[in-house]
Amino acid sequence: MTAQTLYDKIWSEHIVAQRPQEPVLLYIDLQLVHEVTSPQAFEGLRQRGLKVRRPDRTIATIDHSIPTSDRSLPIADPIAARQVAQLGVNCAEFGLPLCAPGSGHQGVVHVFSPELGLIQPGMTLVCGDSHTATHGAFGVLAFGIGTSQVEMVLATQCLLQQPSRNLRVNVTGRLRPGVTAKDVILALIAQIGVGGGTGCVIEYAGEAIRNLSMEGRMTIANMSIEAGARAGLMAPDEVTFAYLKGRPFAPKGADWDAAVARWRTYASDPDALFDQEVTLDGSALEPMITFGTNPAMGIGITGSVPEPARMAAGVERDGLVKALAYMGMTAGQAILGHPIDLVFVGSCTNGRIEDLRAAAGVLKGRKVAPNVRALIVPGSEVVKRAAEAEGLDRIFLAAGAEWREPGCSMCLAMNGDMLQPGQTCVATSNRNFEGRQGPGGRTLLASPITAAASAVRGAVADPRSLA
Amino acid sequence: MKPFAAFASSIAVLAADNIDTDQIIPARFLKTTTKEGLGLQLFHDWRYGKDGAAKADFPLNQPAAAGAEVLVGGDNFGCGSSREHAPLSIKASGVSAVVARSFARIFYRNAVNLGLPVIRCADLYDAVQDGDEVVVDTEHGTIVAGGRTFQGEAPSAVARRISEAGSLVELIKNHGWAAIEEVV
How many other C-beta atoms lie within 10 A of the C-beta of residue A125? Predict the structure, then answer.
């Protein structure tokens, strides 16, 4: 038997049919559904008189379009209200479980599902959402698909897929204080570029990865797509098993022991060959922040903005010039002290309890600067309850930050939480594309502690200065 | 849409790498539950100013590229979200093919599934400008511009069948799931 990577193992276990030179028909263990990318798929099923093949392998929630303000009020935007209502209609008609607001489990699609213990090593998982890569942190082959494919998986529980190449990223050494999982992934994308993982599934390995919690691992896997990768994977270990144990959908009793024994097999064989390997020295990293309009435009927090004049003429330099103009940045300026208007802590990247604890650790006993509006948006109702039980909400409110209801919120500005043109936001989310947080809005991606420190200083700040 | 026939058109060149799905159609337009009307918001924030007026310098607003059915882009076209609304808005706006140096993977797959021809071609991007007339052969992946022939990547057998049917959904609707078994 030839040595296999973790990806090869999961892939080969899920092949339903295969012919030379053609895509593989792959079995999908679980599909996550949200309101934005599913209505057209359900309408397609309806028109063709089809049922959902495995309602028990499908689960829905509401996250993108939902307001994060008072949930007792109706949704003011009639189009958003219709989209949210339509998901309820579709789930009822097709017999799917829906974690709606107030259910106790609603949340960002990539936050609520691991909390339920639904995400288990060795699975294949899809969702009409590119940040589905998040679940790779559990040793799950998880990737985003389009709505036509959502429909196909709803109808058949299978998907046509081309195999990917294997890219291993070794993050060596120990992270220094103030350096988080978010900084690791921003540093990686800055190194390999937004297309650096194209056609690949990334397996993250090395001491710095092993030492991360599941929350930290999810932050890294989540942004695999920002390097163009199909998915991100991490081999499950004791940290994974400890996270899963006792969760509602996790196996119990003798089933648990059998499951853990099987889960341990999901690791790359020692002599498995990777198509490509990249090494990142974790011990050399400092907190990262982006200055431009794609996630690869990132620098260390004590660094300065690159100068187009030092680059060769070409599309890359043109792109940098355009990005700096959009962002209101000056070539060569220090990023520390750059003025900001908002701070957003939340999203499928950094909206989990550990992220909120980290932000609260910085904000405790301090005040958000008067020129800054800070939004703290828990990733799910579970996260919100846990944070309130620990008193984190009171820390945020005492600091002058807003404590909001769970949802995608200001990550992509679909729900009314948005920047005004020209405003700058330090955000813990995943994309800094032009207008991502509202037309004309400017996004600086960073970790929860960098975001919180910047909120206190009223400008881009080094979290180590407030440690 | 002109699947698998050579057709002539003017082109619009989007002169950038990493054109992302939030530029192609901003997320705030995705609250719809149907596939209708998405063409109107294509490149909305690049195309229109705050007052809603068309920006003269955007390629699709220039007279030379008026009615262009071919979009030309750089590397990693369509990066970002998995939302199918992005290729759908391109298709709905009357574009018949996108030619780029390279595509982000999910965008590429979504375009194929919607029957929007997407051609990887390394050399065209640097050789053309807005309003140039080209002949695109989506079956063979070739583009003729200024008397030169540029060889891009021809579609796969699966992509061809999907495009002939109009979309993955149409293919399955018309031929049943056997259509998938045939190509797998």
Answer: 25
